[in-house]
């Protein structure tokens, strides 16, 4: 899109620009930086390498829905990471995320695979709307599922929601504000 100043601007809140910038072969370094910025805040192990995976999740039967994730990668440890960009509020967004995540996790279970060998699945959603009203403008949240017998969180499934406010408009004569991604020195 061409901005008021005549220069090209890229609106990353839309799939048509988000996927090519972060989800294309060759853009692994920029996605790794984005993932690690989130993982530092969420206190999760950092990513060193990723491989892009087909984001289509096909149903197991004629009655199952096909879903298409924004970006799906697997890191060097085998963690599956779904990265979603959601600019508009959608009823049931958290429930949809849970469905995508559990399908991703359970897709690993094949004949001969032991449950204990399943790799974690994570879903990271960048949203421009509050999922819960009491949250501040920028927040990280891990939604974990409690184990019934052990009463501890299950590390295999993680949902991380990152609410990012819209960029503030710069007043006349001032420099525009940008949100930095990554650790600061």
What would the keywords be for this entry?
two-stranded antiparallel sheet, disordered C terminus, 185 residues, six-stranded mixed beta sheet, 3 helices, 20% helix
- Give the terminus-to-terminus CA distance: 33 Å
* Count of individual beta strands: 8
Tally of helical runs: 3
Order of helices and strands: HHEEEEEHEEE
Main beta sheet: strand number and arrangement?
A: 6 strands, mixed
Query: What strand line-up does the widest sheet have?
Result: 1-4-5-6-8-7
Q: What is the number of domains?
A: 1
| Rg from alpha-carbon coordinates | 18 Å
Q: What structural category do the secondary elements indicate?
A: alpha/beta
Share of β-strand residues:
15-25%
Instruction: Estimate percent helicity.
Output: 10-25%
The outline comes out as globular
Mean pLDDT: 74
Low-confidence stretches: 136-153, 168-185
How would you portray this structure in words?
The structure is a single chain. 20% of the residues lie in helices and 21% in strands. The protein has three helices and eight strands, in the order ααβββββαβββ. A hairpin with a 4-residue loop joins strand 4 and strand 5 (80-86). The protein is globular and about 60 Å long. The two termini are 33 Å apart.
Layout of helices and strands, plus pairs?
Layout: H1 15-22, H2 28-42, E1 50-52, E2 56-57, E3 67-68, E4 71-75, E5 80-86, H3 93-106, E6 121-127, E7 139-143, E8 157-163
Parallel strand pairs: 5-6, 6-8
Antiparallel strand pairs: 1-4, 2-3, 4-5, 7-8
């Amino acid at each position: 899109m061409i901005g008021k100043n005549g220069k090209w601007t890229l609106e990353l809140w839309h799939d048509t620009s988000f996927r090519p910038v972060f989800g294309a072969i060759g853009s692994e370094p920029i996605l790794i930086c984005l993932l690690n910025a989130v993982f530092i805040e969420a206190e999760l192990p950092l990513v060193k390498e990723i491989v892009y995976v087909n984001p289509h999740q096909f149903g197991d039967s004629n009655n199952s829905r096909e879903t298409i994730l924004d970006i799906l990668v697997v890191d060097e440890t085998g963690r599956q990471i779904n990265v979603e960009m959601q600019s508009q509020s959608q009823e049931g967004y958290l429930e949809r995320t849970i469905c995508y995540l559990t399908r991703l996790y359970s897709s690993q279970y094949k004949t001969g695979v032991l449950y204990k060998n399943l790799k974690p699945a994570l879903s990271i959603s960048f949203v421009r709307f509050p999922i819960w009203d009491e949250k501040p403008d920028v927040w990280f949240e891990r939604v974990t599922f409690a184990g019934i017998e052990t009463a501890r969180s299950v590390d295999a499934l993680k949902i991380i929601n990152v609410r990012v406010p819209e960029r503030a408009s710069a007043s006349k004569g001032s420099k525009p504000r940008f949100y930095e991604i990554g650790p600061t020195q």
